[in-house]
Amino acid sequence: MKILKILGISLFTLLLGVNSYLLLDKKNKNNTNTKSKSISQLNYVQNLETLLYTNIYLNIDSNLETDLKCFDEKGKKFHLSELINERPKLILRISERMCDLCITSELNSLKRINTDIRKDDIILLATYSNFNSLRILKKKHGIPFKIYKVGTIHESSLEQQNTPYYFVLEKNMIPKYQFIPDKNMNKLTDKYLNDLTPYFLNKYGLIKEIKSGIEFTNSIYNFGKVKNGKTHSTIFTFNNNMEKPLIIQDIKTSCGCTISKYSKAPVLPKSKSNIKIDYKAEHLGKFQKQIMVFSNAKNSMVRLIIQGEVV
To answer: Per-residue pLDDT tens for 14-35?
Structure first.
């Protein structure tokens, strides 16, 4: 009887031990799987955010009506070109047909972000049915920036997105640094606004323009009028201003009609190299295509532009 009791206790202890081991092993596997899954998901999110941010300038036609009529809250009329003085302006484009959450998200980002961009250099171009709606919007969100009522900007392909978007405008009235935000990824907007800060500080004369790691002789090339159905080429030359070899890691273009050719060999310090761009003219009319160059330089993601007219 005593022996049976001892065997019973031993068996119970053994089963308890095996069960504990199995539970612990399962837990460790689950933790490992969960950890691996979490790391995988984190990497995916980070890669997705990088992909989104590195493509924010693509598929955008940068044409804008310089005589676009703008009205302030009191109904006073201006032309858009009159609002741009010696300093560039950061423009946020909004419309009442855009989702309220999207607009709220960007207004909050502008108010929240701590940059050195002056408030009077931030302009909201808003399309609303009447001035009262504009005043309600400003009061509701406590908007500290200048806001102007405008019509639809017909020449901008960004208008078709039906979502808020940003761009920078200088006296030459050529939009640059366009950005389409996402209300679910506010930190991309924060990064965009922070990345613009050195540009504005340089324009304010508060900092000297810092020579970039990769510096292009020209970043814009105009083909002029070109024949349809033909391939047209140009070359962008760049310098390596770093103390280490420069490596072109990737080049993205805004469409399949634009192809880049470059050497993957490291460019030695203080040396030059180039990128060849082939553009296949497939549609009649004016065009503007953008090329994003990524490298191991601190100023990775340099934007190049080709433009012209297909006849």
So the answer is: 334 434 444 444 444 455 454 4
